[in-house]
Amino acid sequence: MQEIVDFILELDKLKGVTRKVRPLGLERYENSAEHSWHIALLAASLVRFAEPGVDLARVVAMLLVHDIGEIDAGDVIFFAEGGKAERQAAERAAVERIFGLLPDGQGAGFLALWQEFEEGSTAEARFAHAADRAMPVLLNLNNHGQSWRENGISYERVVAGVAPPIRAGCPALWEYLAVRLEAAREQGLFGA
Amino acid sequence: MQEIVDFILELDKLKGVTRKVRPLGLERYENSAEHSWHIALLAASLVRFAEPGVDLARVVAMLLVHDIGEIDAGDVIFFAEGGKAERQAAERAAVERIFGLLPDGQGAGFLALWQEFEEGSTAEARFAHAADRAMPVLLNLNNHGQSWRENGISYERVVAGVAPPIRAGCPALWEYLAVRLEAAREQGLFGA
């Protein structure tokens, strides 16, 4: 039991890993723990638009663990250029350390979920990625493009970055967002 | 799709509902969104100690939605005396409003999960309650009794409040906590 408690207290640190988007109406930045909660419910709400047969429980479990590597490695904006291999290696080392706190190989199940999300090759992982990529877009669309403007992210970079994973995982969601992103461009919600 | 998006943006408000416990090492108070994420992973980590046959996916789903009523009703410390019926009614009205944002009766599934947690009569709901009640205890045990001392909560009130639900939902977790709480009393981590 003590090993499980040590693991859970280690996870507490994800509440201190901040992202670039602010929750609507709040001054502070979002953290990766509350983000993980939010996208788990986004996936659950969108399940009618998932590929037939998608196992929602596995999608939710993946989304709850997908950012845990940031406890050691920090959050890096999705649009960062370069250093991707180093970041992936750092997050991999982090989750091996953290899931390794659990007894009797119990961490292997969590690590497999994390790995499945990283690889993105199952229908569940693709759907999970769509939720993860869509959430900051939805917040920005309703927050005057806050993190796009603060970080100088253009319309073209947003679309090039998020269209492929969202279209692959949840085409109906991409159809909705494409129209809203085009309107946001006309309203000047993007960085240069 | 717009109705689902409206629902998800409404959920964003739970990130602004603060609780009485602070995450370890942070000055700010915990919010109910990150708390929900944390206890979903606590339940997943403790599943070997759940009643045989417990459906972990339903436990996780319950924990992700159980605090959504606080968006309208706010968080009230578990040890508050009185007003329980009014709080329950306010939270019930809130979740009916919020889950009602979803199209085609889709909110009924979420409402059923919320209701199952509230009633606490299934094995899944009991296990979920144990995780929900144990998490602030674990944080306080590792945070010098921060919220107990700040709110004048005695050892006796903590034990009277959390022992029954944790013992009912996860006896092994209560055995662990009972020893730690006794040690914390000797260290003076409680309020008067």
Question: If you had to describe this structure to a student in words, what would you say it looks like?
Answer:
The structure is a homodimer of 192-residue chains. With 192 residues, the first copy, chain A, is mostly helical. Chain A is 64% helix and 0% strand. Chain A is built from ten helices and no strands. In chain A, helix 3 packs across helix 6, helix 3 crosses helix 7 and helix 5 packs antiparallel against helix 6. Chain A is globular and about 55 Å long.
Order of helices and strands of chain A: HHHHHHHHHH
Residue runs with pLDDT of under 50 for 5 or more positions of chain A:
none
Number of helices of chain A: 10
Radius of gyration of chain A: 17 Å
Q: β content of chain A, as a range?
A: under 5%
Percentage of helical residues of chain A? 55-70%
Overall mean confidence score, pLDDT of chain A: 96
Q: Largest interface, with Cβ-Cβ < 8 Å?
A: A-B, 49 and 48 residues
Oligomeric state, counting identical vs distinct chains? homodimer
Q: Kindly name the structural category of chain A.
A: mainly alpha
What kind of sheet is the major sheet of chain A? none
> Can you count the beta strands of chain A?
0
Dominant shape of chain A: globular
